[in-house]
């Protein structure tokens, strides 16, 4: 009996230790459904931006016949120039696979847009993301500009830094300094990365709100807590195209 009890104690201790070691790397809660959002960034050859966007505008209906376009923007500031950024929504990974197969067989899409415009693209990047569980995708009521703020967080996922990050985001929103469109956590791409998509009426109103928030002790306190989990950050100012669902 003593041997059995001793063995059971060691097993429980081992299990507890494993839990302690692994728990910091748990991703935490996710949204209940499998809906995913693909972030695509195309780097276009210099002087080819307008040509590419005009060609896509003419043929966007061919692409959206297969899956939902959330938004399509050109990058005004932040990083490399001649860049377009777009978000596509899928029900799940199987849905995306079906869409990609259908596009490969769609001769009209291939011949009218894809093949003629491949030469205009210098580089492509793709990330698969989920909306964080405490956020739903919002659609602004009028036209404006968008800021995509990207945060590289410490390993551990939302289980580690999710609550602090949520408080920092809500501090900006609840105090009226900006409007939130969505918060996305990367599933494929650079891991432990969070993208926050903000909306503002203009670049100047965005700058004014940012300056005021930096002087607000409530925002400063919330951000200071989340900074403990932050590795790096960057952002882009995005201008919606005429055919973008998000204006």
TrEMBL record:
Annotated ranges, domain NIPSNAP: 37-136, 146-245
What the entry lists under InterPro entries is as follows: Dimeric_a/b-barrel, NIPSNAP, NipSnap_domain
**One Gene Ontology CC term in the entry:** mitochondrion
GO process terms (BP): mitophagy
- Per the record, the domain of life is Eukaryota
Concerning PANTHER family, the annotation shows: NIPSNAP-RELATED (PTHR21017), PROTEIN NIPSNAP HOMOLOG 3B (PTHR21017:SF19)
Family, similarity comment = Belongs to the NipSnap family.
Name of the molecule in the record: Nipsnap homolog 3A
Query: Taxonomic classification, please?
Result: Eukaryota, Metazoa, Chordata, Craniata, Vertebrata
- As recorded in Swiss-Prot or TrEMBL, the protein's gene is named NIPSNAP3A
């Amino acid at each position: 009996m003593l041997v059995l009890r001793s063995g059971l104690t060691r097993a429980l201790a081992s299990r507890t230790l494993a839990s302690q070691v692994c728990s910091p790397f748990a991703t935490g809660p996710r949204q209940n459904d499998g809906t995913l959002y693909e972030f695509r960034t195309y780097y276009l050859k210099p002087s080819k931006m307008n040509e590419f966007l005009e060609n896509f505008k003419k043929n966007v209906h061919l692409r959206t016949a297969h899956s939902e376009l959330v938004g399509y923007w050109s990058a005004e500031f932040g990083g490399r120039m001649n860049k377009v950024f777009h978000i596509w929504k899928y029900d799940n990974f199987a849905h995306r696979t079906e869409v990609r197969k259908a596009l490969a067989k769609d001769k009209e899409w291939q011949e009218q847009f894809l093949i003629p415009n491949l030469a205009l693209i210098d580089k492509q990047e793709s990330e698969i993301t989920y909306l964080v569980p405490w956020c739903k995708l919002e659609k602004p009521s009028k036209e404006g500009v968008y800021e995509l703020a990207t945060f590289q967080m410490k390993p551990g996922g939302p289980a580690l830094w999710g609550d602090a990050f949520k408080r920092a985001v809500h501090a900006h929103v609840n105090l009226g300094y900006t409007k939130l469109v969505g918060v996305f956590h990367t599933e494929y791409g650079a891991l432990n990365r969070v993208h926050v998509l903000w909306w503002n009426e203009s670049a100047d109103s965005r700058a004014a709100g940012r300056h005021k928030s930096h002087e607000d002790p409530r925002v400063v306190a919330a951000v200071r807590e989340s900074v403990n989990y932050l590795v790096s950050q960057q952002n882009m100012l995005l201008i919606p195209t005429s055919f973008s669902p998000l204006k």
